[in-house]
Amino acid sequence: MIYFSLIFIVMYIYYILNYRNLDKPFIQRDRNSKLDLIYYILKVCSWVWIITGVFFTNNIFFIILLSTLALKVPLYHLNSSLGSIWHRLIPPIHIIILFLMLFTH
After folding, report:
1. pLDDT grade, residue 97 (50/70/90)?
2. Which domain does 80 fall in, by range?
3. How far apart are CA 60 and CA 41, in angstroms?
4. Could you give the residue ranges of the DSSP H alpha helices within the chain?
5. Which own/partner pairs from 8-14 qualify as long-range (CB within 8 Å, at least 24 positions apart)?
6. pTM of the predicted protein model
7. Measured in Å, how far apart are the chain's first and last C-alpha atoms?
8. C-beta of residue 53 within 8 angstroms of C-beta of residue 62
9. Band of the pLDDT at 92, cuts 50, 70, 90?
10. Which of these, 24, 29, 12, lies nearest to 92 by C-alpha position?
C-alpha cells in the first residue's frame, strides 16, 4: 500500500504540473508523450486501487478518496463552474489524503 500511495502522489503531482495538456482530448493535442500515457494507465490503476481498497480494507481513507471522486459528478451537473473548480481541487486533496495514509499506517 505504501508503494501505491507514493506512485499515485507522483501521478497527481504530474497532473498538477501538466493539467492543461492532460485535460485536452487526444485529437486536439499536438503530441502525446509516453509520460502522458503512463499517467492515464496509472489513473485507471488508481481507480481500481481505490475501489478494491473500499471493499477489502477497513481504511476510512479509501472511502474519503472514493467520495471525493463521486462528488465530481453531482457538482458538475449542479453547476459546471463548480464542477470544474472541484475537478481542480481533487488532486491536492488526494495528495493530502495519500500522505496521511503513508504516515498513519
Report:
1. very high
2. 2-22+30-104
3. 25
4. 2-17, 19-22, 34-56, 60-70, 72-78, 80-104
5. 8/42, 8/46, 8/49, 8/94, 8/98, 9/95, 9/98, 9/99, 11/39, 11/42, 11/43, 11/46, 12/91, 12/92, 12/94, 12/95, 12/98, 13/91, 13/95, 14/39
6. 0.88
7. 9
8. yes
9. very high
10. 12
Check pLDDT > 80 for residue 65: yes
**8 A C-beta contact, residue 96 and residue 103:** no
pLDDT of residue 48: 95
Distance between CA atoms of residues 75 and 5, nearest Å: 26
Domain count, the chain: 1
- The CA-based diameter of the chain, rounded to the nearest angstrom, is 44
Residues in the chain: 105
C-alpha to C-alpha distance for 46 and 105, rounded to whole angstroms? 18
Nearest to 40 by CA among 26, 30, 28, 53: 26
